[in-house]
Design brief:
With 439 residues, the chain is an alpha+beta fold. It folds into 3 domains: 150 residues, no CATH class; 97 residues, no CATH class; 169 residues, Nucleoside Triphosphate Pyrophosphohydrolase, CATH 3.90.79. The strands form 3 sheets. Strands 8, 9, 10, 11, 12, 13, 14, 15 and 16 form a 9-stranded mixed sheet that branches. Strands 5-3-2-1-7 form a 5-stranded mixed sheet, sandwiched between helices. It has a two-stranded antiparallel ribbon with strand order 4-6. The protein is elongated.
């Protein structure tokens, strides 16, 4: 087998010869660029940029030469994507590609090259992560310097890309433990420290930062990565680690995405708040207006009104949560905006987070109510905004006999009062006494 540096040089030469004037740039990323290439466990990662799209014949010539070179590579071989220059700057997401190859696709190409060439194109969310690594730590093998070829990748696109790579970790970690143990560590490291790391660096960071109970797993993954020899993992410990890391990553991602948007934040602090919290719950709520009326969930048994929404599930995207909750409660499908308002409520030792999204109705679907929602006769209603704001404004009248409704009505009144007047960049804090009044 040829050594790494020779293989990189051979790939660059092959690309120049086969693509000729079409070629705009060749960029190395991944472990080989970040100084932790392991022949038994790593692939060689390339991104090839062309000036214009390639014909099927040009793709065939490139693939035939690529497979010859790939046979000389150790372990996982070469992984590469070809993109056109126009999607690099400004960056396009999800990113279109015109050709992709990794060793897992060798059989498909060899068995039916015409089918492969016809189908191996589209968009790939992973490219946002590859572009980010290239901009941060990649190497230019040919063409324009990295910062000239590649525009900035919006952080939200990068976060979506790296999340997409680990979202199924709880189910997948027993099949691919080394990769996911280290990859989740580097994802969390980025969210906390804004550093683009290799898997090895992520593992080292995890040893310094993550709870003691996960140290053995991380050390095992690092050992496998560095030595290239397979390691036996505790399956249950790996699953527990995946659940813990996904929870931490989801929390940090939501915090990061919230801080990158111009989101108004409002705090409602009860006089029974202990001064610190150790429990929290996040919910996403839709503000949906059609024909000058606001969509609401109404309990026919209790007479209670609320904006449709509910709890964010583990690993769930905030906007997907808003879509799901509004659909389940009301039967309306919506296209939500970015988060426009966050209300944080503090009672006793609990922090309740509500994130609000404007939504446009795009269709209808079946209602899926919980048993409790069925018992209270929940159904969708449309009311003029000023009418429901007036209903919510009576929140203090429930302080003596329905504390839950008082708190919810205060929250919804605050949200609608804030948003109906336009979104402000200034947050504020409300302190309330036990009668639900502002002191």
């Amino acid at each position: 087998m040829a050594d790494k540096d020779l293989l990189i040089s051979l790939f660059a030469d092959m690309s120049k010869e086969t693509l000729d004037s079409r070629l705009a740039g060749i960029y190395l990323h991944g472990s080989a660029a970040m100084g932790c290439y392991q022949p038994k466990k790593s692939d060689l990662d390339f991104l090839v940029v062309v000036n214009t799209a390639l014909s099927d014949a040009e793709k065939r010539r490139f693939m035939d030469r690529l497979l010859e070179l790939d046979q000389a590579c150790p372990a996982k071989g070469i992984e590469m994507s070809i993109v056109t220059k126009d999607v690099c700057n400004p960056f396009v997401y999800p990113t279109p590609f015109i050709l992709h190859y990794s060793r897992m696709h060798t059989g498909w190409y060899q068995g039916d090259p015409e089918d492969y060439i016809r189908k191996m194109n589209g968009t790939d969310k992973d490219l946002a992560a590859h572009f980010t690594v290239i901009r941060s730590r990649g190497l230019c093998m040919y063409g324009l310097p990295v910062q000239e070829m590649f525009g900035e990748v919006p952080e939200q696109d990068y976060l979506d890309s790296i999340w997409n790579d680990i979202a199924g970790a709880e189910e997948e970690i027993t099949e691919n433990p080394m990769y996911l143990i280290l990859n989740m560590a580097r994802v969390l490291a980025y969210l906390k420290e804004k550093k683009v790391m290799s898997k090895k660096e992520g593992g080292v960071w995890g040893l310094k930062t993550l709870p003691e109970q996960y140290q053995k797993l991380i050390r095992s993954a690092l050992l496998e990565y560095e030595d290239g020899n397979d390691v036996q993992y505790d399956r249950e410990a790996a699953k527990e680690y995946a659940a813990y890391m996904l929870e931490q990553i989801t929390h940090e991602r939501n915090e990061t995405e919230g801080s990158t948007r111009n989101v108004t934040k409002v705090e409602i602090v009860g006089d029974n708040y202990y001064g610190k919290w150790d429990k929290t719950r996040t919910a996403c709520r839709g503000i949906v207006i059609r024909d000058h009326r606001l969509l609401l969930s109404y309990e026919t048994v209790t007479g209670q009104w609320m904006l449709p929404g509910g709890g964010l599930e583990e690993g769930e995207d905030e906007r997907e949560c808003c879509i799901r909750e509004v659909a389940e409660e009301t039967g309306f499908l919506i296209s939500p905006s970015e988060c426009v308002l966050e209300i944080d409520e503090y009672y006793e030792d609990f922090k309740w987070v509500s994130r609000y999204f404007f939504g446009e109705v795009t269709g209808e679907t079946a209602v899926h109510l919980t048993e409790r929602e069925k018992e209270v006769g929940m159904e969708p209603r449309w009311l003029p905004p000023d009418e429901i704001i007036h209903i919510f404004s009576e929140h203090a009248s429930y302080a003596d006999h329905d504390e839950m409704r008082r708190g919810m009505y205060l929250r919804e009144y605050t949200a609608l009062s804030k948003l109906c007047g336009g979104v402000s960049s200034d947050g504020f804090r409300i302190k309330i006494n036990r009668r639900g009044e502002k002191p």
